[in-house]
Amino acid sequence: MVIGDEVRPASISMGQGVIVAVDERPADIDLGDLVIMPGLVDSHVHVNEPGRTEWEGFATATRAAAAGGTTTIVDMPLNSVPPTVSSDALAGKRAAAAGKLTVDVAFWAGLIPGSEGEIGRLVAEGVCGFKTFLVDSGVEEFPPMSVDRLGAALPTLRQHDVPALIHAEDPAQIYPLEGDPTEYTAYLSTRPAAGEAAAVEVVAGLARVSGARMHVLHLSSKEAVAALATAPDSMSGETCPHYLTFCAEEITSGATPFKCAPPIRAAQHREALWQGLEEEVLSMVVSDHSPASAEVKHLGDGDFGRAWGGIGSLQLRLPATWSGAAARGVGLARLARWLALEPARLAGLDARKGSIEVGKDADLVVWDPDGLIEVRGKDLEHRHKTTPYEGMRLRGSVVSTILGGETVFADGVVSPGHGRMLRRDDRSDL
Ligand SMILES: [Zn+2]
User: Fold this and answer.
1) Ligand 1 center to residue 288 CA distance, Å?
2) What are the helix and strand counts (H, E) for the chain?
3) Which has the closest alpha carbon to 82: 70, 91, 73, 74?
4) Based on the number of CB atoms within 10 Å of its own CB, is 329 exposed (0-12), middle (13-18) or buried (19 or more)?
5) What pLDDT, on a 0 to 100 scale, did the predictor assign at position 430?
6) What's the pTM value of the predicted model, to 2 decimals?
7) How far apart are CA 175 and CA 84, in angstroms?
8) Mean pLDDT of residues grouped by 10 in the chain (430 residues)?
9) How far apart (Å, rounded) are the C-alpha atoms in residues 67 and 399?
10) 311 CA to centre of ligand 1 in angstroms
11) Which residues contact 227 (CB under 8 A, 6 or more apart)?
């Protein structure tokens, strides 16, 4: 069992949905050599319902989470329609999610030009923080903020003690695609690492001036990690399993399931990201699950220019991250921090989520770190089965997932209907 920074034999007693004791008494159910970790928390999931439910919805996303050992997801404010930038839109999200949840769900709000007046109300209604873009988001209903405009909103976020989550790429360093659009390198050169690093530096400057808590999303490059390393302590950063698993050299012509933004880069960046995690410059690994239909991913013509940039991997975060971590000698306690505790802290859910401690929710994942799985998209619970992990053999198989003391996944079968909606910094359910 992973308890804080230790991995040791232990047993857990649960009651009323929470952990009531962690000790060494003989257990009623003996799980042998399987690993028990806190239920995973994924703070970067695009559910897309309402409005683009055909891409991903609450029912399928939370089933996939349960099957992958994740007991809490935090929903991103785009690409649902409307985006979650107002109190009304948040009400629409909750109405859409009601009755469909297999795991717990909390919500990020969005910050776009003109939505600043909604910040206080959204915080009062329990959102975990605010996501914003410095570049085109890919959907017209979620425009980017200028640096000045974002800077002007930060004192309000600081006052409410909620983080700003930033998609950090420099709009001046995004270039049109030139050459054959089915070649991955043609897409890769449209979004250089230098543009990502420049934006991380801009965000660090804003964090320094405002004192606001700032978090940079989905870092993909060595240069961005270096920029984050010198940022103030009020800033944090994440990366995703696909940047830790794949590299540009191995992406073949037309393989649009690999398209995301920022892009998967050369192998040296992958190694720099692992190093950034080991040195605690990066604090977490979250999925950025953002699937779309085969048509929108341009699977037919393999056009990287026109394909949607987003990867479906919610169910695969544990084995994808563990495969790379185990190969590099990273232990289970660190893995649990990256996949559960740090995302819970970012979202202000750590009073009840993210670690095995008396008083926290009885959310657990039981898994076999030596179990091998072969990824078959058609067997995933995601609404769309396209995934760049197709056919890969990964280490780490989830045996069961427990949410609030109830089994929501076991022996390959999801038991839906146990999930709740959560507020930031609060122990009561919505
Ligand atoms: Zn995202």
Assistant:
1) 5
2) 12, 18
3) 91
4) exposed
5) 41
6) 0.97
7) 29
8) 96 96 89 95 97 94 98 97 97 97 98 98 97 94 97 98 97 96 98 98 98 98 98 97 98 97 98 98 98 88 94 97 98 98 98 97 98 96 94 98 97 94 75
9) 9
10) 9
11) 197, 198, 200, 201, 204
- The predicted pLDDT at position 428 comes to 58
Distance from the CA of 196 to the center of ligand 1, in angstroms?
Answer: 15
Identity of the residue numbered 156: T
The string over 404-429, giving b where at least 16 C-beta atoms fall within 10 Å of a residue's C-beta and e elsewhere, is bbebbbeeeebebebbbbbbbeeeee
Cα–Cα dist 73/183, whole Å? 34
The CA 408 to ligand 1 mean position distance, Å, reads 26
β pairing state of 364-374 and 393-403: antiparallel
User: How confident is the model at residue 427, as a pLDDT?
Assistant: 66
Q: How far is the CA of 111 from the centre of ligand 1 (A)?
A: 14
Centroid of ligand 1 to alpha carbon of 186 (angstroms) = 22
Tokens for 349? Answer: 């859910």
- How far is the centre of ligand 1, averaged over its atoms, from the C-alpha of 271 (Å)? 22
How many whole angstroms from 290 Cα to the centroid of ligand 1? Answer: 7
Exposure letters 336-369 (e unless 16+ CB within 10 A, then b): bbbbbbbbbbbbbbbebbbbbeeebbbbbbbbbb
